[in-house]
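Researcher: Go.
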Amino acid sequence: MKKSDAVLSILSFVGILAALYMAFIYAPTERTMGDVQRIFYFHVPCAWISFLAFAVVCFCSILFLRRGTPHWDRLAYSAAEIGILFLSLVLVTGPLWAKPVWNVYWTWDARLTTCLILWLIYAAYLMLRNWVTDRERGARFAAVFGIIGFIDVPIVYMSIRWWRTLHPAPVLGGDEGSGLSPQMLYTLLAAIAGFTILFVTLLSFRYRTHLFRLQIEQLDSDHRF
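Model: Structure:
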């Protein structure tokens, strides 16, 4: 393991531990929803990481189409895998939070529906990569799909502003208007920071795994010929 990997792993571990401590011990209990509100400190960071991951997919896909360098494609692929993992956690933690508050696990409002569509888009992105046998062609198809699919990310984010929804309003700060006390805001920011470091760590590991696989396949192809 490289020194940078060890540092990232340690920082991820410490960051997630700090987030857990602050979410369950440091942050006060919300007066209306009670302890179930603590899911918020994991639900929001997971959503942030999925948006960040799909932004990486879009950015790297653009560079891959422009330059044709395989490592941009591998980075986009890695980010998509991590993004859909965290978005799946969003779709799990959301209903767990919604049931005690809304009395239903799921409702087809704008935020939830657009979020599910986003999950389906990137699930299709990953399936597309496996279905197309020509690697180069599949990578280019996936790059175009990843760029177009990113359009849904700002739609998900803006959905609670554009349409009526049961989803809580966005949190902009720790003042009275935001609905968060300073302790809650600090906990949220700590969780976002911890999850972001975890994302960078996972992306680094997954990216190198794809590169190793590509090198092995290339060596195997060379031996055959």
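Model: Confidence is low (pLDDT under 50) at residues 172-176.
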